[in-house]
Amino acid sequence: MSPPVLLAHRGWASRYPENSRVGIEAALRAGVPCVEFDVQLSADHVPVVIHDTSLERTAGHPGRVSSLTIAELAAISVHEPARFGTRFDGEPLPALADIVALLQDWPQVRAFVEIKRESAEAHGVDETVDLVSRVLAPVLERCVVISFVERAVMAARRLGAGATGWILNYYDDDSHHLADAIAPDYLICDYRKFPAAPAALWSGPWHWGSYEITDVEHALGLIARNIQVIESMAAGDLAADPRLNSGCHSGNPA
After folding, report:
1. Is the pLDDT reported for residue 252 higher than 60?
2. What is the structure's pLDDT at 2?
3. How many CB atoms lie within 10 A of CB 126?
4. What is the secondary structure of the chain as a DSSP string?
5. Please, are residues 111 and 134 in contact by the beta-carbon 8 Å criterion?
6. Maximal CA-CA distance, the chain
7. Which residues contact 254 (CB under 8 A, 6 or more apart)?
8. Burial class (CB in 10 A: 0-12, 13-18, 19+), 62
9. What CA–CA distance (Å, rounded) separates 132 from 134?
């Protein structure tokens, strides 16, 4: 992955409900070359695309993802009523299989798939990664399986992920030693945790990524520090700037 690329954080989440099919597809149609979304497991161990363990914020629903079956979750609208009112009412919570089907129509797109800590801990790291990998199988070679959980990253590599990424909680010596041991393809970090410029970032077998970037000048400054993945909930807007669109695709499915 060279040159630097844009990564749509939870889809085009500044304009559409996060982790929704409509938001992910909108980012793809805007030409964003990579999308990121989060995966949790339902009560019956089906991978679904949602960030939180609770449905309160995105659906206004009191339930928890892990206590509801896939059939129950599929009937819930994740239209983020606090942000969008009724504009996206009826937008279903997607199963991971739904997003895999979408990605099959966009063969030039790479997906960063985040396995959430809560599901990994509740269901077991190996079982969670295995379940997710099985669903991703049709597009696994162009998926980057990422997680804050180091063991999930290592399990994903063992199970054949096209690439892996570790998301850092801390930019410190302990994390540096772990990064050397894990040797992921990507290291991803909140830009606010980086040392002040012009300090060089850790070198290794990885590409650096950072979030949450919404300003073009900020993105260009990070790229100048050798950060190659610019993760943004406004990636669809950033893709319109010619200084950032070198890695963008045509905006049309195959």
Report:
1. yes
2. 58
3. 15
4. --S-EEEEETTTTTTS-TT-HHHHHHHHHTT-SEEEEEEEE-TTS-EEE-S-SBSHHHH----BGGGS-HHHHHTSB---HHHHTTTTTT-BPPBHHHHHHHHHT-TT-EEEEEEPHHHHHHH-HHHHHHHHHHHHGGGGGGEEEEES-HHHHHHHHHTT-SEEEEE-S--SHHHHHHHHHH--SEEEEEGGGSPPTTSPPPPSSSEEEEE----HHHHHHHHTTTEEEEEETTHHHHTTSTTT-TT---SS--
5. no
6. 51
7. 105, 106, 107, 108
8. exposed
9. 5
Nearest CA-CA partner of 78 in 48, 102, 57? 57
The span from the CA of 23 to the CA of 10, in Å, is: 8
5-238 maps to which CATH number?
A: 3.20.20.190
* DSSP bridge pairs for 167: 188
Q: What is the reported pTM?
A: 0.96
Instruction: Give tens-digit pLDDT for 111-154.
Output: 999 999 999 999 999 999 999 999 999 999 999 999 999 999 99
Judge contact between 186 and 207, C-beta under 8 A: yes
